[in-house]
Design brief:
The complex is a heterodimer. Helices cover about 30% and strands about 20% of the residues of chain A. Chain A is built from seven helices and ten strands. In chain A, strands 6-7-8-3-9-10 form a six-stranded mixed β-sheet, sandwiched between helices. In chain A, strands 2-1-4-5 form a four-stranded antiparallel β-sheet, covered by helices on one side. Chain B is an all-alpha fold. Chain B has a single domain, classed as MetI-like fold, CATH 1.10.3720. In chain B, about 80% of the residues lie in helices and about 0% in strands. Chain B is built from eleven helices and no strands. In chain B, helix 4 packs across helix 10. The longest helix of chain B has about 40 residues. The chains are: A alpha/beta, B mainly alpha. The interface between A and B is medium-sized, with 23 and 19 residues. Bound molecules: adenosine-5'-triphosphate (ATP) and magnesium ion. The site of magnesium ion (MG) has 4 residues of chain A, from helix 1. Adenosine-5'-triphosphate (ATP) binds next to strand 2 and helix 1 of chain A.
Chain lengths: ~280, ~270
């Protein structure tokens, strides 16, 4: 098996390594307690593109928040770049499951919030924000307010905001969920390119098996709650990957592997081809 | 007393618009007003009500024109008191809310005091103000302030706390400081709430100023009300009430307009 991270970008050492050991996350309230994650241990080398796959409620978002330092594990430790996470990493970019745009800021200003908070040069960042907007096909929406955008458009603005400062740790929680199939494919291609060019560690949550295979160096499949890692699959497809890689037998192999894991878990029961239920693959 | 449900300040139902005119803003209230005045005029004349009990609109008009100088100068006094009280309530109210949100412990300690200050009838403590400060413009302004700041505090507090956990996470993921969270997230989120609070505050401030003038003052529309009542100058009294109402409406919609200028994203 190829060492994870091998397929990733030039090893300038910029990207952050993530170490997760024995992490447990229990949400306790007076009436009940929910174990969201149980005894999770894994290592994500710097520069790796890692996807998290798993049924709804298995703790994917929770794991992202823990890595981000927004919440803390009930037990176990998380390290980013060699130091234990106690607060958000200074070079973090995060796409949340909701778009979380500020209704009082225009599209471009929403993206520039990242620059404002980081006290970066707004002028230089404005040019970069425009570039990013053009890349996601929203150059015409620069001065619109979020309420004037569709859900998919808002999600794309959220992605631009997360990558404006070229983070070395990028956490994305179902960033393409609200997009139509075509835009989704395009965004996947662009994200794959970006991740390959820039030295960034990416943890990417998705419900789409083929999207995960297409984008990732490695896929972690998580069990239903409490979330554990039930499969750790290294995707050794050559990069750069064009959309046509999805028609190759090796791609189908990987999709089949992941599908099998879901079947073993009892989450997928019927024997349809894996791509069918998600519409990103014909 | 004040709620988060009306941050837009535009709760009107969608216009049915049978005709463009009927759909124009201000048309329905105008018809209502003209109708009321007409009914009033007719009733007073037909039933021959003595003018010191209830003057007809035409009598009030005449009294208003005759005493215009008096009404105007006293209205200016009340206006000044109202605006001073309102401005104080806006500044103090928002600052208190910020303190209470930034230091929840202080908030929990302060809140009962604020509520208590509000449930005490102002008419009952107004004489105290007179004893402490004396009669006049300062006392009326202070009473206006005391009456007006509460809705500002309540709404601003609610607004500053109206941010989702997700948005807080977003800010923290960018490394935002407490001050940045306040500046970029909490304050803008609170603006619509604060505007609602200010709309209530301006109405309360007018009442407060009038109460102050009732209790101890020798100028202002409230003073004029007392004097005209004592002299059975009911027509002038009503004229003063009309001026007061007009002033209140103007101020209220002024604040609403201000709100719409500030909140352009809605
Ligand atoms: N703040 C919280 N308080 C209490 N329970 C929580 C909280 N956040 C998550 N949970 C619980 O933890 C479990 C995992 O939630 P999480 O949001 O991480 O799932 P997920 O894998 O992201 O699901 P989805 O795919 O639907 O987004 C769920 O059972 C949820 O109810
Ligand atoms: Mg989730």
């Amino acid at each position: 098996m190829a060492a994870p991270g091998q397929a990733a970008a030039p090893a300038s050492g910029r990207a952050a390594r993530i170490g997760i050991s024995g992490v447990e996350r229990v949400y306790a309230s007076t009436r009940s307690s929910v174990t969201a994650l149980h005894d999770l241990t894994t290592e994500v080398p710097g520069g790796q593109f890692l996807s998290l796959l798993g049924p709804s409620g298995c703790g994917k978002s929770t794991l992202l928040r823990l890595i981000a330092g927004l919440e803390h594990p009930t037990s176990g430790t998380i390290e980013v770049g060699g130091t234990t996470v106690t607060a958000p990493h200074p070079d973090l970019g995060m796409v949340f499951q909701e778009d979380l745009l500020m209704p009082w800021r225009t599209v471009i200003d929403n993206i520039l919030l990242q620059a404002d908070v980081r006290r970066a040069d707004r002028k230089a960042m404005r040019d970069r924000a425009r570039e990013l907007l053009a890349q996601v096909g929203l150059e015409a929406c620069e001065n619109k307010y979020p309420r004037e955008l569709s859900g998919g458009m808002r999600q794309r603005v959220g992605i631009c905001r997360a990558i404006l400062h070229d983070p070395r740790l990028l956490l994305m929680d179902e960033p393409f969920a609200a997009l139509d199939a075509m835009t989704r494919d395009q965004m996947a291609v662009d994200l794959a390119d970006m991740a390959a060019q820039r030295d960034t560690t990416v943890v990417f949550v998705t419900h789409s098996i083929s999207e995960a295979v297409f984008l990732s160096d490695r896929i972690l499949v998580m069990s239903p709650r409490p979330g554990r890692v039930v499969a750790d699959i290294t995707v050794d497809l050559p990069r750069p990957r064009g959309l046509h890689v999805r028609e190759t037998p090796r791609f189908a192999d990987y999709v089949g592997q992941v599908t099998e894991v879901f079947e073993d878990l009892g989450i997928l029961r019927d024997r349809r081809p894996a791509g069918h239920h998600e519409g990103t693959q014909r | 007393m004040s709620h988060s449900t009306a941050p837009t300040g535009r709760a009107t139902a969608p216009r049915t618009g049978l005709r463009r005119l009927a759909g124009a803003p201000g048309f329905a209230p105008l018809v209502m007003l003209v109708g009321l005045v007409a009914v009033w005029q007719v009733c007073v004349r037909v039933l021959d009500v003595p003018f010191y009990l209830l003057p007809a609109p035409s009598d009030i008009w005449t009294a208003g024109v005759d005493n215009w100088g008096l009404l105007w100068s006293n209205a200016l006094v009340t206006l000044a008191e109202t605006l001073v009280g309102f401005a104080l309530s806006a500044v103090v109210g928002v600052l208190l809310a910020v303190v209470m949100v930034a230091w929840p412990l202080a908030g929990r300690a302060l809140y009962p005091v604020l509520v208590a200050s509000q449930v005490i009838p102002k008419v009952a403590i107004a004489p105290l103000f007179v004893v402490w400060i004396g009669t006049g413009v300062t006392t009326s302004s202070l009473i206006a302030f005391v009456m007006a700041f509460f809705p500002v505090v309540v709404n601003a507090t609610q607004g500053l706390n109206s941010v989702s956990e997700g948005s807080l996470h977003l800010m923290r993921s960018m490394g935002a400081s407490q001050w940045q969270v306040f500046r970029y997230l909490r304050l803008p989120s609170a603006l619509p709430f604060i505007i609602t609070g200010l709309q209530l505050a301006i109405a309360f401030a007018i009442v407060g100023a009038i109460v102050g003038e009732f209790v101890g003052s020798d100028s202002g529309l409230g003073y004029l009300l007392i004097v005209t009542q004592g002299n059975l100058m009911t027509d002038t009294l009503f004229a003063a009430l009309v001026v007061l109402t007009a002033m209140g409406l103007l101020l209220y919609y002024g604040v609403e307009l201000l709100g719409r200028l500030v909140i352009r994203w809605k």
